Structure formats: structure tokens, C-alpha cells
Amino acid sequence: MSKKPKSKKFVEYLDLHSKQKNNQHIDFIITNSIIEKHFLQNKLQDKPFTGKSPSVTTIDLSHNFFYDNYSKSIWNTISTQTQVESAYSTWQKEHDATFLFKPIIVPKTKKTIDVSVNTISDLLDIIQQHEYEETVEYNIDLKSLHNIKVELTTLNDMVGLESMKQSILNQLLYFIQELHIGKDTSDFKHTVFYGPPGTGKTEIAKIIGKMYSKMGLLKNNTFKKVTRNDLIAGYLGQTAIKTKKVIEECLGGVLFIDEAYSLASSNENDSYSKECLDILCESLSDHKNDLMVIIAGYEDELTHTFFKANQGLESRFIWRFTMEPYNAKELRQIFIKKVEEQGWVIEPTVLQESWFEQKKDAFKHYGRDMELLLTYTKIFHGRRIYGKDTELRRKITLDDINGGYDILVKNRKAKTPPPHYMHGLYT
After folding, report:
1. When comparing pLDDT for 276 and 83, which is higher?
2. No. of helices (H) and no. of strands (E), the chain
3. 198: how many CB neighbours lie within 10 A of its CB?
4. Is the per-residue pLDDT at 140 higher than 80?
5. Domain 328-413 has CATH 1.10.8
6. Which end of the chain is more exposed for a tag (fewer CB within 10 A), N or C?
7. Is CATH 3.40.50.300 the right assignment for the domain spanning 116-322?
């Protein structure tokens, strides 16, 4: 007599289980609760539940978003064992869920947002005027715009940098429409920031990383800022290991290399620099879909050192953003903005644009120097108001600013060693 084949139907499994085991009422309550939660959490409600079938797509641990987002679920048998053993949990380990019917898709209402975008402010206007609705299909990616509203606002509120803002807008509109994706290929995201220190390059690089991670262009919001010392070791072989480790840590996010020209030595026989740049160049192509590398520095130095050291680098950095130096008007705006951000008070009439025009040669590092100027201004202010009416506290006067400027200039005259990249370029 042939043995009856084992049924894959869950109902029959439960019937058989109930005959073989003397279940108590509490056993049925637990089993029912587990089944209900599993169906609801995995969005299987109102769907027939059957055994394995090679002709249909199964819910696989590696593809089901449930297991990605809720890794601590009792159903994720990869990381944890099922905490509650029941008739259902025993059967569930041996079977997969399959859908006998295709889900009903409710058609979306189509809506066209007819606009022209020339500035970041135009994008913010679109966000302000159009709320995103899941039931509507738009001609633009309105959902992504809403997701990056904070970053767009921060960029738009930055003083000056109009050329940079236009470049970022061009890149953003290109990527948000997925124009960089072709048949079996995609364009590089790697970007160059040209400009002097103190113009906000690091801050902008972080903003770009956040925007693109929220848009799904990058998988995560990883941001790592590195210099020569983070990539190049003291002896051969270790530089490759060190560089690869940094790149692996940044996959899915942004690797920001400040003063990138320091990676290239004026000595053509510098094997350490060559080893680093060779690995970097290779990684720019191998990981162009899951890595964005941003380098920063003066244009002339990058052209004659970094890009000259490895001919393959230049073609991989297709995006070039230029950060113009701040003028006297913009320096004044930056200083006043920093004062207000720190909760201090300054009357607009106290500090004129002409003051910065006369002293602009002392502010070669622009925004960074404005931070220093404010720090020294507060120090002088603390000395000036000591023992006086408390109402004077945190109210900056022109005397405070002049006193802070004198401290800044005095400290500048103190001898300091040259930046580390100078050794690589000229020794």
C-alpha cells in the first residue's frame, strides 16, 4: 500500500496536527494570533496561502522588504530563531507564501505641473504650491522634491555662491529625472569643487550627500571627509590597503577629499601617491553607481597635480563646480548671519560694507575668517563690558568688532608651519 503524499495545504496540516496533539484552548489562541500578525505585517491578508510552487514568485528572505526593514522579526530566521513555537510556526518554516491572484492596482490620477525652473527658489516654490499625494501621478518627481526640502532651503539661504547654486541645480535636475541612466550604463556622479578655503565646500558636499540619499540616488547618508594622511601610508603596499578601506567605508555615500592636490607629489618617483591615485581611479569606475567622490581645491593646483598624476582621473570627474570668492557685501552678510545664529545682537547700521572693503585682504579664508572674527569680537566684548550694566551683554558694537579684528591680525602675524600639502608639492 503506497503512502499518502504529505499535503502542502496549511488547513490540512492544522487538521492533522490537532489529531496528533491534545491541544488546549490556549494553543489555538497563540496559533491564531501568530498567523494574524504574520499575515498583516507581511501584507498577505485576504490572499490565499498555499505551499511551494515553482511556477510562482515566492516571498524570499533576500527580496522581501519586510525582512530588510524589520530584521528583528521572529520570521527572520537568518538572524534569530523563532521565539514562539506553534503549529503554524513549525509549518511556516517548511513552506513559502505564494499569491494566486495579482494585486488590484488602483489607477492614479495624472497631474501635470507646468513650470520653468531657473533657480533653487523655483524648486522651493513648487514644493510650497503642490502637496504630494500618493494617489496622483505627476510629470515630475514631486515626492523627491518634498523629501529634500530642508536641504534645498539650506542651500538657498547660503550667502552668495550663485554660480555654485546654478551648478548644483543643473546636476540635481539631471539626476532627479534619471537622465544619467542609459542602457546597461550610467554616468559618473563624481564632482570637483574649485575654490579657496572658507567658501563652504565641506558644508555643501554634506548637503549634496543628504539630498541624493533621500532621492535614492545614493543608498545611504554616509559622508567621510579625508585628506592625504587618511589615504597614504608610510610604506608600499599599505597605501593600497588604506585607500581601499576608506573607499569601502564610503560605498553608498560620499567620499570628500579636501585639498586633493596633496595626493599628488611633485616627485614623479613618489610610489605612495601613485599607488593611492591608481586605486582611487579604478574605484571611480568600479563603484560609479554606488559612490560619489567629491574633490576640492584650487583649480590650477588640481589641474597641474591631481589630474596630471593620473590621466584617467579627469574623465571620471565630469561635474565641475566653481565657488567664487566672497565680496565685501557678502562677507558682511555672513558675519551678521553668524552673529544672529549664535543669539547675539548687532544693529545693522553698526557695521557697514565699507568696513569689510577696507580690510578684505585680511580675510583670505572668507567664511572661516568670519567665524574667527566673531570669536575674537566676543572675546573683546567680554573684556569691554565686564563690571558694567548686564543689559549690555551680547550686544555687539563697532568697538567690539574693531577689537576683535586687532586680535585676529595679531594672531596672524605669529609664525605657523606651512600646511602639510606644501611638503608634498614642493619638497
Report:
1. 276
2. 19, 11
3. 20
4. yes
5. yes
6. N
7. yes
Residue spans of alpha helices (H) in 114-236: 120-129, 142-147, 149-157, 162-176, 201-215, 228-231
Q: Is the pLDDT of residue 29 over 80?
A: no
Helix H or strand E encompassing 38: helix 25-41
Is the separation of the CB atoms in 70 and 64 below 8 Å?
no
Q: What is the pLDDT of residues 143-160, one digit of tens each?
A: 999 999 999 999 999 999
Cα-Cα-Cα-Cα torsion 246, 249, 255, 257, nearest 10 degrees, comes to -20
- In the chain, where are the structural domains located? 10-94, 116-322, 328-413
Which pLDDT score is estimated for 58? 42
Residue 245's pLDDT band, with cuts at 50, 70 and 90, is very high
CA nearest 297: which of 334, 266, 256, 251?
A: 256
74 contacts 35 by C-beta, under 8 angstroms: no
Contacts of 215 (CB under 8 A, 6+ apart): 141, 144, 147, 148, 175, 176
More confident residue, 177 or 28: 177
**Using CA of residue 194, residue 199, residue 202, residue 207, what is the dihedral sign?**
negative
Asked if 176 contacts 141 with a C-beta cutoff of 8 angstroms, the reply is: yes
Q: Which residue has the cell 559622508?
A: 223
Q: What is the 3-state secondary structure (H, E, C) of 231-286?
A: HCCCCCCHHHHHHHHHHHHHCCCEEEECCHHHHCCCCCCCHHHHHHHHHHHHHHHH
For the segment 178-221, what is each residue's pLDDT rounded down to a tens digit? Answer: 998 877 677 899 999 999 999 999 999 999 999 999 999 999 99
* Other CB atoms within 10 A of residue 321 CB: 24
